[in-house]
Design a protein that fits this description.
The chain is α+β, with helices and mostly antiparallel strands. It contains three helices and seven strands. It has a four-stranded antiparallel beta sheet with strand order 1-4-3-2. The protein has a three-stranded antiparallel beta sheet with strand order 5-6-7.
Length: 150
């Protein structure tokens, strides 16, 4: 089932730090690293978390770190299609994972703008991201031990 129905339930800034000593204000371009992660923190409530960790790098160390988590609640009928009790796995279709990643990256972009408003760091705009390079297939994870059927 590709048409997974879900709603956005919470956005959380897990980390936000500016380390000005590592920042070179004269630099025209900056390197950044970007990572994305999926987790299933509350199986009973059908919650999927997509988080993103972004680091802007100076010459020797990061000077800005932002980690954002977005929590999605999947509708019950859709959730049943994600769970395979025979293999004790959760499978999130690639298209749904891409949609959730897009919402998470957009949230991170907005948080970055808001947190750096009226500072010299506001010129840091999270570039567009090719989601196909981040995930090339379905997201498959084992069920948490407490949820597995014996």
């Amino acid at each position: 089932m590709e048409n997974i129905k879900f709603g956005l339930r919470e956005i959380d800034t897990l980390q936000y730090a500016i380390l000005p000593k590592a920042y070179d204000s004269s630099a025209e371009k900056f390197q950044y690293s970007f990572g994305i992660n999926f987790s299933f923190p509350d199986i009973e409530k059908r919650i999927i978390c997509c988080s993103s960790l972004i680091k802007y790098e100076g010459k020797t160390s990061p000077f800005l770190i932002l980690e954002v988590a977005v929590y999605f609640e999947v509708e019950e009928e859709s959730w049943d299609h994600l769970i395979d009790m025979k293999t004790n796995q959760i499978t999130l279709p690639k298209s749904t994972a891409h949609h959730m990643m897009s919402l998470t990256i957009g949230s991170a972009r907005g948080i970055l703008h808001s947190e750096t408003k009226n500072t010299e760091f506001n010129r840091l705009i999270l570039p567009t991201v090719n989601l196909n390079k981040l995930i090339d297939g379905d997201v498959i994870q084992p069920m948490p031990e407490s949820e597995k059927q014996e």
